């Protein structure tokens, strides 16, 4: 939980810095509102999103494969180490783990205490506001409720209720306050404030979250001021003077829209600032890549491809991980020369394994009584009966103390009978430990022995893998190697394809994706690259995205010969095909830059979209203009509407500017009805920018 909380805090901090550096001074207040709200919501969602492994920017892209394979060998949760054979080293480690765990636990308690505290504060504010709204005397003004308050308190609004002391203000100022608060209510700014408060509850320790809420509150006031100044009955100078009168040091509750002295100056400056140019909207498009970058850096990658080999570890091994008592009941089924025995303890936990019939001493069919299985680790005694091929009864495991002593002499710590029973189930022998040590693995751990023995990693296999000369290959690597069927022949094949200095993790990743030497060779031939400086990450990503030599060659055939690996992955993810490009070439767009292709496809600009503009009289439109037009949802029908009201000599820049400023055909018609008749569309744009009317 702690990593998630900190990750969320990091995203909120980055979003605030992004807003402060690029967007805070822009006058696109409505757009800023949605950006701030999106940041608050996405900060809690992005950490939960899994991402494709090929997009992960973690230091080792294949780390996700190794734990999956090695987790099968993790027996640390099976057995509580407490025997004398473990001695001082293990006790010391346990003590350190306890200290760290305790610290983390107290941090969690502290965090939830803060959440509870701020949550109660939120509820208290809500209760106070609801009490004032519905239990104090009020005036109904259409859908608005006006509650008259007393004392030196600043006016504010919450939901559809306005709180104001009418005795403090003259009539003009009073009307302007009401109009201002009504705009807050109509645009549902309370929802923004409630969301910001929820963020504070769960991020109370994060100063950037508090600043983000402050930025959102400020932008809401800028937005409302902008709407106020577009009212015909409001003069800028009069309104600004009214703000100075209303400014009060007594802040209302944080759930309400409000006036305060520290914000008034910023609001007046913003009202008198120059309107932002539509061409600065490019800044907003960088927010999404920022969030994607965070996801690629920190999110848990999802392995794709052929991972089924990881499941080949015998079921018995995974059953042992769940824990198994040394006494309980058993159920058995005989199949040919083997018998599958299921073990069940008093808690209902079950595990099963298969034995050879000749291992069962004292056993005959149609018997009732006792039989046993003896291995180096101990003896499993069974009591019960068989009827045909089915049997049931009780079992009891007796550990071999001599085996325990021999294991300790070989350096393998065995804590209690649970360890010995695990060794019994996979039939670990002293000779197997000695074989591993003979082949260079001196520090053998019981958690490695169990999966290795279960997988049948014999001396012949281990020697062959060591001959492949993989750098820093340890027993932990041998477990996924064996479970996934990685042998020396596969390693040699990968090296012959160009990867000379490949690591164990790279081999695991390649195998899990079903990548062989032929695929690597085709990959490098199609991209005109060699593998001397690679670790295989690119070819893994290509395989998972189904990018092959045919895909690369199809783009080479139409002139795109120097595409980078990132370009190829972007083309594939956006589903850009040579046919898509040829449609543009038919319209006269030759040699389109790769970045322009990405922009056109991401905005879904099609050849039909361009052809429709040609029918409306706009031909040879630049790609940059196409992107700008599509991003603002400008269509050929809109062009026709402008022409129908007399603007026949339009330019692309005129249409883009008009759309950005809200100078629509209906707006122009309304202005003409009021006597504002201009000959050019540009004049209406200037008129809208100066006057600010709707």
Verbal overview:
The structure is a single chain. The chain is α+β, with helices and mostly antiparallel strands. α5 packs across α8. The protein is flat, with a radius of gyration of 36 Å. Mean pLDDT is about 80; it is low at about 60-100 and about 305-325.
Question: What distinguishing features does this structure have?
Answer:
alpha+beta; seven-stranded antiparallel sheet; 54% helix; 694 residues; 31 helices; 11% strand; five-stranded mixed sheet
Report the C-alpha radius of gyration, rounded: 36 Å
Main-sheet strand order equals: 10-9-8-14-13-12-11
N- to C-terminal separation? Answer: 49 Å
Mean pLDDT: 79
Number of strands: 14
- Given helix and strand content, the structural type is alpha+beta
Provide the β-strand percentage band: 5-15%
C-alpha geometry: flat
Stretches where pLDDT is under 50 for at least 5 consecutive residues are 59-98, 303-323
Query: What's the story with the biggest beta sheet?
Result: 7 strands, antiparallel
Count up the helices. Answer: 31
Helices and strands, with pairings:
Layout: H1 2-23, H2 29-45, E1 51-52, H3 65-71, H4 87-135, E2 138-141, E3 144-148, E4 156-158, E5 161-164, H5 171-186, H6 189-202, H7 207-229, H8 236-246, E6 257-258, H9 261-271, H10 287-298, E7 301-302, H11 315-321, E8 327-335, E9 338-344, E10 350-356, E11 360-361, E12 368-375, E13 378-387, E14 390-399, H12 401-409, H13 417-426, H14 430-438, H15 446-455, H16 459-467, H17 475-483, H18 488-496, H19 504-512, H20 517-527, H21 537-544, H22 549-556, H23 565-573, H24 578-586, H25 594-602, H26 607-615, H27 623-631, H28 636-644, H29 652-661, H30 665-673, H31 681-691
Parallel strand pairs: 1-7, 3-5
Antiparallel strand pairs: 2-3, 4-5, 4-6, 8-9, 8-14, 9-10, 11-12, 12-13, 13-14
């Amino acid at each position: 939980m702690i990593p998630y909380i900190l990750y969320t805090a990091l995203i909120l901090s980055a979003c605030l810095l992004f807003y402060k550096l690029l967007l805070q001074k822009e006058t696109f207040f409505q757009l800023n509102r949605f950006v701030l709200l999106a940041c608050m919501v996405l900060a809690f969602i992005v950490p939960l999103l899994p991402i494709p492994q090929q997009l992960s920017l973690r230091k080792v892209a294949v780390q996700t494969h190794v734990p999956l394979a090695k987790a099968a060998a993790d027996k640390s949760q099976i057995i509580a180490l407490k025997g004398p054979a473990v001695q001082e080293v293990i006790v010391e480690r346990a003590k350190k783990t306890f200290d760290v765990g305790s610290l983390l636990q107290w941090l969690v308690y502290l965090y939830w205490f803060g959440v509870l505290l701020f949550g109660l504060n939120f509820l208290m504010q809500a209760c106070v506001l609801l009490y004032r709204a519905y239990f104090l005397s009020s005036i109904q003004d259409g859908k608005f409720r006006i509650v008259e308050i007393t004392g030196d308190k600043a006016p504010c609004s919450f939901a559809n209720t306005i709180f104001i002391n009418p005795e403090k203000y003259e009539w003009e100022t009073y009307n302007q306050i009401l109009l201002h608060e009504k705009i807050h209510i109509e645009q549902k700014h309370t929802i923004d404030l409630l969301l910001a408060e929820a963020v504070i509850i769960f991020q109370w320790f994060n100063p950037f979250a508090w600043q983000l809420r402050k930025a959102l509150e400020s932008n809401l006031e800028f937005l409302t001021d902008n709407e106020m100044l577009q009212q015909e009955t409001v003069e800028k100078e009069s309104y600004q003077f009214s703000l100075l009168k209303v400014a009060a040091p007594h802040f209302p509750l944080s759930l309400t829209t409000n006036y305060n002295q520290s914000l008034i100056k910023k609001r007046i400056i913003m009202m008198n600032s120059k309107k932002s140019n539509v061409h600065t909207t490019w800044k907003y498009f960088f927010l999404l890549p920022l969030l994607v970058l965070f996801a690629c850096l920190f999110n848990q990658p999802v392995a794709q491809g052929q991972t089924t080999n990881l499941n080949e570890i015998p079921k018995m091994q995974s059953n042992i991980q769940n824990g198994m008592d040394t006494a309980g009941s058993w159920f058995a089924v005989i199949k040919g020369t083997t018998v599958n025995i299921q073990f069940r303890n008093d808690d209902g936990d079950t595990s099963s394994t298969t034995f050879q019939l000749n291992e069962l001493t004292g056993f005959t069919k149609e018997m009732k009584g006792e039989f046993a299985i003896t291995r180096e680790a101990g003896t499993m005694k069974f009591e019960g009966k068989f009827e045909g091929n089915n049997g049931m009864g009780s079992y009891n495991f007796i550990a071999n103390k001599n085996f325990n002593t021999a294991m300790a002499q070989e350096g393998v710590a065995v804590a209690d009978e649970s360890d010995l029973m695990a060794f019994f189930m996979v039939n670990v022998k002293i000779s197997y430990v000695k074989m591993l040590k003979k082949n260079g693995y001196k520090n053998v751990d019981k958690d490695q022995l169990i999966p290795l023995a279960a997988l049948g990693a014999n001396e012949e296999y281990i020697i062959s893998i060591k001959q492949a000369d993989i750098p820093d290959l340890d027993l932990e690597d041998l477990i996924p190697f064996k479970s996934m069927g990685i042998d020396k022949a596969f390693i040699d094949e990968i090296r012959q394809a160009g990867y000379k200095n490949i690591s164990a993790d790279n081999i695991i990743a390649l195998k899990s994706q079903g990548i062989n030497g032929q695929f690597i060779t085709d990959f490098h031939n199609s991209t005109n690259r060699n593998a001397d400086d690679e670790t295989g990450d690119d070819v893994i990503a290509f395989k998972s995205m189904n990018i092959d030599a045919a895909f690369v060659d199809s783009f080479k055939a139409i002139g795109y010969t120097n595409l980078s690996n990132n370009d190829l992955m972007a083309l594939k993810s956006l589903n850009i095909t040579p046919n898509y490009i040829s449609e543009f070439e038919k319209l006269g767009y030759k040699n389109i830059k790769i970045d322009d292709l990405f922009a056109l496809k991401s905005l879904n600009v099609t050849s039909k979209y361009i052809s429709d503009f040609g029918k409306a009289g706009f031909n040879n439109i630049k790609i940059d203009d196409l992107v700008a037009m599509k991003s603002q949802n400008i269509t050929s029908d809109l062009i026709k509407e402008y022409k129908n009201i007399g603007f026949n000599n339009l330019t692309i820049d005129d249409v883009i500017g008009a759309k950005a400023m809200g100078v629509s055909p209906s707006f122009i018609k309304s202005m003409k009805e009021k006597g504002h008749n201009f000959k050019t569309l540009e004049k209406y744009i200037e008129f809208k920018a100066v006057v600010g009317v709707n």
